Amino acid sequence: MEREHRSLINQHLSALVDDVIPVDMLPYLSCLTSNDKEEIKCEETNRGPMRATQKLLDRLIRRPNAFQEFIRALRETGCEHLAELLYPQDEEAAEEDIRNEENIEANFHGQVTLQDVDNL
User: Fold this and answer.
1) By residue range, what is the domain housing residue 12?
2) What's the distance, CA 6 to chain centroid?
3) 9 and 57 in contact (C-beta within 8 Å)?
């Protein structure tokens, strides 16, 4: 993660720790290893969500290109206010992101499923 992104996270650490539910974010963070995810889950079970969020952030700042995934995960898990705090977007850019996501989803739905192939 770039220095400026780490700085933003540190600047808003209190808000992130208060509002993020780390295990909800894990499916959206492909930059994390399975081991990272397991440790974060264990941390939440044993010490609570605030400590797990700290562990999550610690792991994320070590990964290249993790910031964009983190912003997307925040949006997907209902923490748009935090995503906006870290990465403010103008309305046009936000609408473009939505259109891109809709196109990706439409392309995904148009794919042939494994079950369809088995039935041929």
Assistant:
1) 3-111
2) 15
3) yes
- Name the DSSP class of 26: G
- Local confidence band at 17 (pLDDT 50, 70, 90 cut-offs): very high
Q: Residue 57 and residue 7: Cα distance in Å, rounded?
A: 12
CATH of the domain at 27: 1.10.533.10
For residue range 29-80, what is the model confidence (pLDDT) as tens digits?
A: 999 999 999 999 999 999 999 999 999 999 999 999 899 999 999 999 999 9
- Global pTM value: 0.72
Contacts of 20 (CB under 8 A, 6+ apart): 49, 53, 56, 74, 77, 79, 82
> Rounded to whole angstroms, what are the CA distances from 24 to 5, 7, 29, 74, 80?
22, 24, 10, 9, 14
Please check whether residue 120 lies inside any domain of the structure: no
If one counts the domains in the chain, the total is 1
**Residue indicated by tokens 């290109």:** 65
